[in-house]
Amino acid sequence: MDRKKALLLGDYSYPEFHPLQGVDEEISHILQDWMTVQCSENRKMLLKENLASFDLCISYCDSRKEVLSPQQTAGLLSYVSGGGGLLVLHNGITLQGRYEIAQLMGARFLRHPAAAPLSFKVTEPDHPIMEGIEPFEIQEEPYRFDFDPFTEKTLLMEYEYEGQWWPAAWSLSYGLGRVVYLMPGHNQPSFQHEGYRKLLLQAAKWAGRFPG
Fold first, then answer.
1. Interior CA angle at 11 toward 43 and 68, to 5°?
2. CA distance readout (Å), 164 to 87, 128, 142, 161, 198
3. What does the DSSP 8-state code read for residue 11?
4. What share of residues in the chain are helix, strand, coil (percent, to 5)?
5. Cβ distance 141 to 115 under 8 Å?
6. Which pLDDT value is given to residue 211?
7. How far apart are CA 33 and CA 41, in angstroms?
8. pLDDT tens-digit series, residues 148-184
9. Would 15 disulfide with which of 11, 29, 61, 151, CB 3.0-4.6 Å?
10. Where is 204: in which H helix or E strand?
């Protein structure tokens, strides 16, 4: 089987809240049997010519103040619409600064209450990403979202906070490509949770159209 390649984009130098250090090791280990993971904080990797060699792009970006350039925006949109896979983890949704990217991801991040033990349940058990995924509990930031009304998405999981259930994961098609958002991922311990590791792997394989 040919080794596939994933680009993991985050922040090493000046993260606001979620450094890529440590998380990069966990994600690389989770995906090691399926793909080689290249880690970078350089947003220029989103240019069309730089994304072309990757089977999957993973966003763990952590800078709401940094807005992608028109060229970077066009590169990511072209990559996904042409058949590329995009996996957005937790704070990775902060690439939402341009409306086109928020629409690509299906939602904007709004805010979150303080981190707490959250219970997660499956809402779409027949989706390939959710195969064999059981309900789990994990210490996480309960993110709130504003959903794009024009993007058809499949809600995969919800989390419970103060007696109410909220969206926690979804998938969508964009042109010929696939996009997945997973809310968990606040820090390195999140990526050490066995239930979440399995979910992340299956989301990566689905978004990147990996066989099996």
1. 30
2. 26, 26, 11, 5, 25
3. -
4. 30, 30, 35
5. yes
6. 76
7. 24
8. 888 899 999 999 999 999 999 999 999 999 999 999 9
9. 11
10. helix 194-207
Global pTM exceeds 0.85: yes
Which residue type, as a one-letter code, is found at position 160?
Answer: E
Structure tokens at 101: 């990217």
Please give the Cα distance from 29 to 141 (Å, whole number): 23
Helices (H), 7-98: 23-31, 48-51, 70-81
Q: Which contacts qualify for 63-70: CB closer than 8 Å, 24 or more apart?
A: 63/11, 63/14, 63/15, 63/16, 63/94, 64/16, 64/94, 64/97, 64/109, 65/16, 66/97, 67/97, 67/98, 68/43, 68/95, 68/97, 68/98, 68/101, 69/43
Cβ atoms < 10 Å from Cβ of 112:
17
Sign for the CA dihedral angle at 132, 151, 16, 25 comes to positive
User: Which residues of the chain are under the pLDDT cut of 70?
Assistant: 1-2, 212
CA pseudo-torsion sign 23, 29, 34, 36 = positive
